[in-house]
Amino acid sequence: MVEVGDRLLGYATDPNVRSKGASGGLVTAVLAAALEKGLVEGVVILKRIDEYEAVPVITDDVQEVLSSGGSMHAVPVNLAKYVVGKKVAMPGKPCDVRGVIEQAKRNSVDLSNTYIVGLNCGGSMHPVLTKEMLIKMYEIDPEDVVGEEIEKGKLIFKTKSGEEKSISIDKLEEEGYGRRESCRYCDVKIPVSADLACGNWGVIGELAGNATFCEVMNEKGKLLLDTAIEAGYVEVRPADEKSISIREKVNSAMLKLGDEWKEKVFDEIPDKDRLKYYIDQFADCIDCGACKEVCPVCSCGPDSKCTMFHSLADNYKMSMYHMVRLLHLSDSCIGCGQCADVCPVDIPVTTIFRRFANPAQKNRNYMPGMDLKRPPFLEVMLK
Amino acid sequence: MAEKEWEPKIVAFCCNWCSYGGADTAGMGRFQQPSSLRIIRVMCSGRIDPMHVFNAFLEGADAVLVTGCHLGDCHYVNGNYKAEVRYQFLEEMVKQLGLEPERLQLNWISASEGEKFANFVRDVTAKIKELGPSPLKPEGVN
Predict the structure, then answer these.
(1) What digits encode the pLDDT tens for the residues A321-359?
(2) What is the distance in angstroms between the Cα of A276 and the nearest Cα belonging to chain B?
(3) What is the C-alpha separation between A324 and B51, in angstroms, rounded?
(4) Among A181-190, A290-299, A372-381, whose mean pLDDT is lowest?
(5) Same domain membership, residue A277 and residue A161
(6) CB-CB neighbors (< 8 A) of A277 in chain B
(7) Averaged pLDDT for residues A266-273
(8) Chains A, B: CB pairs < 8 Å
(9) Domain range holding A19?
(10) Which residue among A103, A111, A139, A354 is least enclosed by CB atoms within 10 Å?
């Protein structure tokens, strides 16, 4: 039996799952056990198409869950909207988890039946840019790639012929490749708002690479892990001091790097040029609405203020759509970067939203998606 | 013909119970005030959605005034507190957008404060005349 707050090292008992998973297959096994034991009716997984593409599916097939192991850094989808109203378990990066929590605060998800296994995340990559990077920087045909890995600050690609090529991530990012921009300045790397927070940071010595560091965050996480242990899917042992401190160290190093990026990305635009900058950026908008569609924290539904009060016939300098979205996201934006990824005309939507959200959230000492106790602002400030 | 001096367009959202009454009192008391004001009466300042304010700006308002009862005096118990919370977000957004902060103002005016209302409108109009037309004004609107 584990307790809330426990920090453990664990791995899947099944050797296949253990070797296929990115680090010990603990997460895969926990999700499979939850499904097998009837804790949930489905599990959200990413069904792999190739190295750069995967579709999120909700499956009730245990085998499918077990075969979904392994990380995909080049598939930056946000799974938050898939759990809405369903009795499911899902794995998730910190931004997935924060998206779900924000949805729950706005009463569009009932979290009592949803289990979230959070995964540490240092960043993900845009599939199109990754292919471009493979051709330009690695000089590999993207179709030949069979696997990728991140190790000691280096991004390693393996090809069909068994070759490995590694370039340091810093160098890639200097060239404009590597992690997505929103990931570089992301400020939550360990998903402490999930039920279980898992990752390979802090796994050292003989276990390195085939065990997962796992922190039990709440009662649901405890239930999830207990179920998996009882079913014989995973084995855990308490993590020692050294593991815990290394995990902390990796996290703070990542956050420090993130702060540096933040300064670089959000250089202050002078007051008088700012409006022109925003108007110019949004002038390219083709009103496709994709940024709203993918937004994990947007919870108004199809009939929302941003779309209903926006008309293509308006000759406004900025559209109502953007104005309303800028305001709605100023307290809830988690900076996941989905909107910029999908924008067909390459407006840096996330960066613009963050420019509004950063001061608003900082002034209120608030981070969206971190806990369920602090509701959205109107409610808090009226008390 | 001499060029007519530019007169700003100011939209004021007034709540039915206090600030609209304040505007009325200002008229009854014959306090002089500029003709730049367009009043939109709402039942409570809590009804004012930030969207209304944006729409006013996008339609060509040079300034938007949000007014309501004094805190604690709301006819609907806490409507003006809600307005205040929304206003704080609006204020930050206007600042970040690069609009001059003077273009959006909040004031609590009771039904008896006719003079305060008139002075408020006069001050804002003078300030906006200095700043000139709003950069968000659509083309073809003066």
Answers:
(1) 999 999 999 989 999 999 999 999 999 999 999 999 999
(2) 8
(3) 6
(4) A372-381
(5) no
(6) 98
(7) 89
(8) 78
(9) 7-124+184-258
(10) A139
